[in-house]
Structures are given as structure tokens and as C-alpha cells.
Amino acid sequence: MPEYKAPIRDMKFVMQELLNCDRHYQKLGYEDASLDMVDAIIAEAAKFTEQVVAPINQSGDEQGCTWHDGEVTTPDGFKEAYQQYVEGGWPTLAQNVDFGGQGLPHSLNTAITEFFSCANHSFAMYPGLSHGALATIEAHGSDTHKNIFMPKLVEGSWTGTMCLTEPHCGTDLGMLRTKAEINDDGSYSLTGTKIFISAGEHDLSDNIVHIVIARIPGSPEGSRGISLFIVPKFNVTDAGEVGDRNAVSCGSIEHKMGINANATCVINFDGAKGYLIGEVNRGLNCMFTFMNAARLGVATEGVAAAEASFQGALAYAKDRLQMRSLSGVKNPEGPADAIIVHPDVRRMLLTQKSIAEGGRALIAYLSQLVDVSHAPIGKVDEAEKASAESKLALLTPVAKAFLTELGLECTSHGVQVFGGHGYIKEWGMEQLMRDTKISCLYEGTTGIQALDLLARKILGSKGEILKPFGAEVTAFCVENAGNEAMQEFIQPIMTFGSDWQKMTETLGMKAMQNPDEIGGASVDYLMYSGYLTLAYFWAKMAKVAQEKLAAGGDDSAFYQAKIKTARFYFQRILPRANGHASCVENGCDSMMALDVDDFSF
Amino acid sequence: MPEYKAPIRDMKFVMQELLNCDRHYQKLGYEDASLDMVDAIIAEAAKFTEQVVAPINQSGDEQGCTWHDGEVTTPDGFKEAYQQYVEGGWPTLAQNVDFGGQGLPHSLNTAITEFFSCANHSFAMYPGLSHGALATIEAHGSDTHKNIFMPKLVEGSWTGTMCLTEPHCGTDLGMLRTKAEINDDGSYSLTGTKIFISAGEHDLSDNIVHIVIARIPGSPEGSRGISLFIVPKFNVTDAGEVGDRNAVSCGSIEHKMGINANATCVINFDGAKGYLIGEVNRGLNCMFTFMNAARLGVATEGVAAAEASFQGALAYAKDRLQMRSLSGVKNPEGPADAIIVHPDVRRMLLTQKSIAEGGRALIAYLSQLVDVSHAPIGKVDEAEKASAESKLALLTPVAKAFLTELGLECTSHGVQVFGGHGYIKEWGMEQLMRDTKISCLYEGTTGIQALDLLARKILGSKGEILKPFGAEVTAFCVENAGNEAMQEFIQPIMTFGSDWQKMTETLGMKAMQNPDEIGGASVDYLMYSGYLTLAYFWAKMAKVAQEKLAAGGDDSAFYQAKIKTARFYFQRILPRANGHASCVENGCDSMMALDVDDFSF
To answer: What is the third-level CATH fold of B286-459?
Structure first.
């Protein structure tokens, strides 16, 4: 297993040098989030993930979770690591101070989330799901619910889940069958079966708080008849402590391609007591609050996968001696050169590096927008908030789908760099590939993200949603129009950007004639958008690096490497967008022409 | 697990209608390979793989091979299935009649190999490795060796392996350490450790015949000092039967991402008795005979993976109801439409279908070239033979790398079509992805194939190697220049083909200045070549389908689907080559610029 080292230097570059988190936090009133504090938290998170979380990643995969008679046992070391996680106060970091949180910014929490995901995807999902449950209760629960459930969830002694999927419906939640019948005391009895419930049952916490969507009898059909409920595994006493067992049980756990150390559960509700949150029949809208945050969390997993695989592949590529460089012997004393001399090995490593670092910048940027979108008016004005929300809405599906697809590609490169050894479990490279494939599926598949982007967001807003981010990118290009050294980055952004605009307009026209053009173009369109978006962040990073170099200092190798990696991205990754553009251009006719019965003979 | 149905109709289309196997076999003197015989063998192979081989695929993955005290036990059912395989005479199909073979054409065996790989990748590898050992002994062994080893290998009661890799060398075989010391009787004693030996030890056969590369003390350093040996697990008595145990043992088996039912062994040679085949120090050249055949076998695995995943995804896409079509309700009686109505699901299915069918055509074409390359002068003339060998040399690395990379992509689409269910082992879709990743690694990684194509084959021949295949493609375009209905296929081939030529010339020039330009371009160049090559076969298939439709008959839906799939390939797959071309064009500077120490800080 590659030894995990948290990318502290790069995280600081992104947060502090690229995105001025200091100024950002001061403006939003996060007085505790000083640069020193940010540094200290990042350093501690690095230590914890390197020393406690990473070492149980491979063993967790091998051992997996086990189910016995409704109870799930996590792999060796998970319980202890989770305990340390709670004792270290990690769950409380960005939570509301009124419920025991530290009130630090969301974006700071996002930064360390990458470390956790990178060190151990399965482990990171347990607290990850709690955040979703917490955010939902905080946004839509009554004061009573908040007082009962939030302190324990914030503390981490209880964990949460999101129970959406049923055997016959995942994407199409309107088809759900779980029913919620009202009791005399105003609570509800929930009956039904949910599947794919990550962290649905385990031995890490004293209670599990399920956020469940269900239908109240008599509600409208489809997605307009979905309500949202809190259903705890153990009922809660008046004193707020764990009481008797609720009628919620774990029927089984799934055997999966990866994330074996995270329990993916079938959860049965047999008249379980639940509490309505939000308004009746408005459950799906309440879920959207959570879903956007969850999607950014999954996008972070894509970055984490690229980073983890890069670390493993880089160490191996420096160490493994095989063949001589085509341009002359580089290691005359050895029997062969280290494989990092070979251009194709470098192509794979730099693909991983440019996706990990570019993705890290995109995630950090988006997490600052989340800070802004959560900030009270006064700290930010209406226009700033609206702009942040618009950018978030646009870029969340791009980040989720693009970064997870590229994350998967990067883990595949990681296996390739190791050659046959990459296929052997011992090295840990194949686990990364297996683990990260889930990120292309859950919280909405790549296809669903692409429809969200193109149909719901862009065409649904008649392109309005593109404006704030488009204006930001244009302003950057204009600002740097006279900067000779930036032209290798600015010019492609302008060209690809203008093609993006034309592509979008053309698609809008075609979609009016034939709505299937949207679905036919969506994934290629999203990938194009992803390559272009990351190009913008690479250009911004190159700019900062140029300024730092111009200012002098002793970190020039780091900044030089940044500029060189930016160059690689523009020359060897961004051009892929051309292939996607050609596919979009060719429309959907060829994919709709076949009759269902004619796919196979 | 998706139920496997061998694609009989499509295999017949490719072999008979596209490639006129009847005429081909008659010309080469395969009198037994009549159309009726071909049909019968394909039908029997379909039955056997569907009923015997496919049913132990998923259970084989779950159970895996087990190692105990040097002995490997294959999963339940493998021994029985292998026995039936032997009893059915399957190993003998294309083998030399002098040693008990049926003497049928290689290309016929290749066709059914796809069925075996598709039904069960792990199972298919056991006989697959025997073919390699057999081919090597037949080509380079003495008559004595042939008489001792071939009959049992042909029969299948013994199996074979290829022992190349050692812990410190895979690609760079010149570094090998296994030594072979001559004995008084002219045999050799082999000492060393080989790793990644597929089918190196198992319980399916009475003996295992290892083909081993080793160094005779005093031989030149590097790849010029490698000799080739036959080393049986059990020594062979004068009567040609299994005798006492040789000093060959299986030290352990690997725990892998996939192909769990095939034993990947560490094989220790502790002064094991072996027999030199071929000339001293010419072992690597002898291996090349085998390696090209093995690479085509692996390319077939890519096609098989695409086909298997397509079958699973198609069945699910027709069955799973989720959401309504964007262009209006298609299943008004149901709660939702089948997901096959959604354009993006079709994009994934058609990607799988076009790669499986296009790849099948390419493999069938290449396997006919193998027939020609094996044919005696008289049946074919020198020029035909040289042309076939040139095309094979050119297209083998393309088929191996391109079809396995696309095969992997197709299995990933298969998982996506299933959504979250694709990640669950029960459905079998994730196994396909895990199993097929090995095909991008063994018998030379994608990167190695790309170097073989661009450096060794194309630039090494100063482009000569491109001529025979280039002339064939050009002739096809010229032939169809006046065919209006073919222009949607012919025009892109001419455009992409002419760009290919320019790209190759430019690369040749750049490589003279800087050899790293070869490695920097190689994989993108290979992928471009792959997309274009498959376009040619899709155009040829479209042509045949047009002719069949024009001739009338009752199979018009099949031919219409062929043309529509060709159209999809040209509109939605081929354009990806544009992205690769842009990457090639941008050269290798950006990937060579970083110092080794500056990849990470």
C-alpha cells in the first residue's frame, strides 16, 4: 500500500495563495479561522489521516464489514479510529456552535475531507454521511428536532444516514413505496425497505439517525408526494439519551466492487417511529439542500482518488528500474533507468497530478462559494450571494461527474504505472480503482449530473446560470490580455470558451426541435465543460506561480513545477475537449435510430 | 450475473459475409472447414460456453483459487468443465494433425476463443496458455520435444505456461536472473523464481509444461543472452507418460483485482530439469512468435469484455423502469419508461455494441491473416504472405492495446448502465471490469504496445509497414468513391487517414530531433490508429449490409442495425480521435520538463 502523505504544501497554495482564504474568512466573520489556525488544523488533519486513518485502509478492504443477525461489525481498527476521530473533535469542526460545533468555515472542513477520503475512502464515508443528515436537520428540522438530534451528531457519538433509494427506484425517487402513517402523537410510523444505505448500520456510534424519504398515504403520485422524516435506530429519551430500539433493522449488507469497509445496507422499516421534517410533500426539495453538498463531497473523492493513486505511482516510478530512456541512459550505475524517465509514464503521472491539483483548486473554490452562500446578509450582499449560488449550481454537477470520471481514469493510470504489479492487491493500486468507481455512481451517476447540468441548469435557465461564472472567466482573460507569459493559457481558454458558448447555443436550438438532443449531448457536453473549467483554474494557478516567482523567495521549484504542470494540462489534457465537441456536434440521431429490439440478434 | 448468449449471428456475419471465410479456407486448403462445419463448430462452441463455461464464471470469481502447500485448487466446477472441454476435443481444434489435432484453421479457433473469454475470462486462460506453449514448441522444439510434449498438450490432458516475468523484471526481460546450467546429458538445470505465471499450477491437468526463459552462465548481458527451455512439472518417462516430480514448485498465488479463478503463480525452479529449445541466446526471438499470437488472444479478451458487458447492460436497460423519456412517454402503462429510451443509456450501449462488433471484425480479419502467414507457399504466394505479415505486425499492437482499453471502458459503461446496482457483485457487471483490467497489462501494457507500434514497427520500418494496410484501405475508398450511400463512411476515413499520414510523418521528423517525442506521442497515436482502423471495418460492414439489403431477404433488421451502428461509430466514437490528434500535435516537451524531484512537494 502506498504510504499516504497529505499534500499540505499544495493545499496551502490553493487555500491561501490562490484563493486568499485569510481575506475570505475575515470578510465572512470567521475570526477564529486565522492563517495560523488554518495551518494548525491542516497539519493536525494531515497527521491524523496519515497515522490513524490511512493505516487501516488496506486491511479494511481485505476484511470488509460483516453482518450477523442484523448487526454490522466494521473491520479491525475502525471503531478505535472513529473514537479517536470523535475525541479529536473532528466532527465538530464546521458545525454550528449552538449545538457544540466549532463554527469554523465549511471550506476548511472540505480541505481536510480530501485528506480523509484520500487516506481511506470507506472510513471517510461514515462521518461524511453524518454531515448530510446534520445539514438536513439544521436546514429543515424544528427546534425540538435540532435540540434532540444535533448535539450528538455534531459530537459524533451518533452518526447519520440518508435513506433514499429503494430496490425499484434510485434516480426516479417519485416511484418510492415506503409509507409514513401518522400516529396519534403526531409522529409517523414508517414501513418499507431502503437499499444502498451507506453507513446504515455499524458499530462505530451509539445511535444512527436515518433521514428517510417516504410517502404519506393520500399524497400526490410521483415526486410531489414525498415527505422527509427523521427515524433514529434507537428512540431517544426525554433526556436526549439512547432509549429503546426503534423498528429499524439492517436486513443485509451488499457485497461490492470496493469500499468494502463501509457498510452498504438494506434497511427495513417495520412501523418505525419517525418525525416529519420540513413540510408535508416537500421532502424532495428539502433533499436538494443536502444533495448539492453531498455531490461536492463526492467530487472531492475524485480528487482524493487521483491524489492517492498519484502518490503510489510516483513512488513506484522513481523506484522501479526498467528499460533505458529513449533519449539516452539516465542511470548508468544501475541495470536500467527508473521508469519515471519514460515519457509515457510521465504522461500518466502528470495526468494524475494535473487532475489532483486542478481538482483541488476547483473544490476549494466551490467550498468558498458554499461559505458565501451560507453567510448572513451583511457579511455578503445579495448580489454576491446570488452569484455564488449560481456558480455553485452550475459547477457542482461538473465537479461531481468530471472529477470522479477523471479520478477513475487516474486510478487506472496508477495501476498501469505499476504494470502487472498494479493488478495485485498487495500494492493497493487496484483498490483505489475499485473504491473510486462508486463515486461515478452514487449521489447521481455521471449521466444524471450531465442532465442536471445541461437540461435543468443551463437550458432550464436559458443560459442565465452561465453568466456569473462566464463573467469571472472573461474578466480573468481580459485582466491578463497584456501579460505575455500568460498567453499560452489565456488564448486556449478564450478559444475553447467561445466554442463552449456556441455549442451551448446550438444545443439550445436543437433541443427545442428534439429534446433527446439534450440527453444525447449531455455527458460529452459536461466533459467539455469540465476540461475547460479546470483549464481556468490551472491558468489562475499559473498566474499566482508567476507572481510568486517574480517576487522571489525560496520556493521557486514549487512554483516552477506549478507552471510546468499547467502547461502539461493545457497541452495534453485540455485538447481532449476537441473530441467531446465533435461528438456533441454530431447530435443524437445515430443513437436514437435503433429500435429497442434491434440492439442484438 | 447476465446470462451469456454467444453472438452466433454476428460471428457468422463477420466470418462469412464480411470476410468470406469459405473462400479463404478453400484457398488455403482447409477442406474440412466447409461452411457447414464452421456453422456446426460455432453452434457447439456457443452451446458449450453458454451451458458449461459461463455458469461457473461468477462462482469462480467468488471462490477463487486456493493454494495449499504448493498445490492449487481451482474453484468448484472448473475441473469438471475442463474435463468436458478436453473430452469435447476443443483443445485439438486448430492443432497439427500429426500430433492429434484436427488441423482446422487458426481463425476458426479464434472465433470460438471469443466465446470462451466472454463466458469466463479466468477459465479461458487455462487453455489459452497451453496454446502459447504449444505454438512455441511446434515452432522451435526438436522432433523429440514435439513427440514428447505435443500430443498431450494438443489433447489437453497436459497444459502449458509461459514463464517470463521475474520480480525485478517484466518489460525489461534482459534483466532476468533465472539461470540454466547444462547437465552431462545435455539437459539443463534451471534455478530461479518466476512470477505472474498464469495457470502455473492447478488441478485441471496431469502435467504442466512450462516454457521458461533463462540465462546460460557466460551468455551476453541483456536480451541477447536469453535462452528458452521446456521445463515440465513432472518429468516424462520414455513412454511419454508422467514420471517423477521435477524440481518446480508453486510458492504462492497472487491475490488480484480480478481473474480470481485463474491461478497467478510464483513458480520456483530449484535445479529443475529443462530442455533447451531453439538456439542458445536466441530465446527472446523465439518468444516473439508466441507473443504476437498471445497479444491477439488478449485483444480478443477486450472484445469479449465489451460483448459480455453489453449483453448484461442491454438486458437491464430493457427491463429497468426509471424516469420518462425526454421526448414523451414511451411506456404509458408502466410507472416509468425502460431506461433504454434515454439517449445517454443508448450512448453507452451503442459504444459497447460498436466496440464489440467492430472489434470482432478486426480480430476475425487478423486471424485470417494469421492463417495466411501460416500457409505453405503454393497455397499463397510470397507477396500475399509478406503483406499478411506486415498487416499483422502493424495491427497486432493496435488491436491489443486499443481493444483492451476500449473493452475496459465498455465494462465501466456496463456498470454505469446499472447505476448503483452495477457496483454490487451479485449482478456480475463489476466483475467484468475487474477481470478485463488485466488485459491492459499482461502481454505488454498499453504503453508497451504503443511503443511497439510507433517506435519499433512504424518508425523502425521508416513507414514501410504502413503500406500494405494503407493500400487496402485506400483501395476500399477508391472502390466506393462513386457509391453515394457510402460517403458518410468513406469521407471520414479519407480525412482521418490523411491526417494519420501527416501525423506519422511529423512524428518521424520530430523523433529524429528528440527520441522522447516517440514515447510522448505513442499512446495517443495508438488510440488514434485504433479509432481509424475500427472505422475502416465499420465501413466495410456497412457496405456488406447495404449489399445484403439491396439483394433483399428476410434479415433486413439485422443489416439495418449494422448500418445504424456503423453510423453511431462514425458520429460518436471516431471523432474522439480528434482529441488524441491534438495531444500528439502538442508534443512531449510539457511532459519532460519536470525534474524527477519536482513531481511532488
So the answer is: Butyryl-CoA Dehydrogenase, subunit A; domain 3 (1.20.140)
